[in-house]
Write a structure and sequence with these properties.
With 140 residues, the protein is mainly alpha-helical. It is built from seven helices and no strands. The longest helix is centred in the first third of the chain and has 14 residues.
Length: 140
Amino acid sequence: MEKKVKYDYAFKLECVELVLKKHYSEGYVSKLKQIPRWNIRKWVSFYKTYGEISLLPRINQSYSAEFKLKVLKIVERESLSLMETGIRFNIPNIAIVSKWKKDFANFGIEGLQPKPKGRAISMSDYKRKKHKSDKLDMLT
């Protein structure tokens, strides 16, 4: 099953090429395609750094606590912006770095540990109640 994406590869590539090859401004392409300017800026930056492959949809990636801590230390030491951080460490969702900062500030290194995925298991000791039909079947 393919991941559902808001903007497909061809659309992103077209926007990037308008900026880089036709020399349109990011603002103009943003208005032309009716998408936020920061998307254009992000796609162009990733394209310049990693090439066409950076525009392909990505599966959800999990990062180790060590990697997160390394990123946060470098962000702090070099005063990198979220965009610069995302490009440097190839993190497509730059907002995740803000979440890491917040988790680290609140919980320390434990806040950077990978979280369990999926729905929490509840009522594991639950036993189904017997219904009238179940009781009747037992009598026969």
